[in-house]
Amino acid sequence: MRDIDALVLAELDKPQVKVALFAEIETEAGFVRAFAGLGDITIDGKLWKGTGIDGKISTVEETTDGRAAGLVYELSGIPPELVSISIQSIRHKYMATLYMGVFDERNRLIGELTPFDRGLTDVPELVDGTDAATIRISTEKRAVDQQRSRVRRYTPEDQQIDDPTDKGFNYVAGLQDAKIVWGRA
Length: 185
Hints:
By secondary structure, the chain is an alpha+beta fold. The protein has one domain. 15% of the residues lie in helices and 37% in strands. Strands 1, 2, 3, 4, 5, 6, 7, 8, 9 and 10 form a ten-stranded mixed sheet that branches. The longest helix has 10 residues. The termini are far apart.
């Protein structure tokens, strides 16, 4: 993540500040960009769709045990015809980024969007409603991957994952029952 823009810092010192969260989620079809506001806004040539009050982000959790906590992006009010497209396009381990934007009294963006959180998407969850649906997309930090155990074996097949030309482990199985005489017999 980068430092907060100096213009944004100056605005955050004011007694009243207009802040909006922006979510950029990578999908198989490209990026989906939404923000907590009304209408659409274009920033640096990218169109961000306003979700009004229908978009939510879970509470940002800070842990002291070294555990990496992710976020849950939730978008409500999705028309039924867009639900299947959304479910089919969002894939596991695609990038999702949450930005913070600060606006002036005329609703113009001050400075640049500030990256707030970044994670890898999980499989989306669909919650059906009467008129529209809600999609929840969980994200996790790359650090979560460090907590997963690595199961590796001393087999030729396992070694082929790292180097398809390495034949060194082809002989390991034969060594298990081999009798090796060391020194004088």
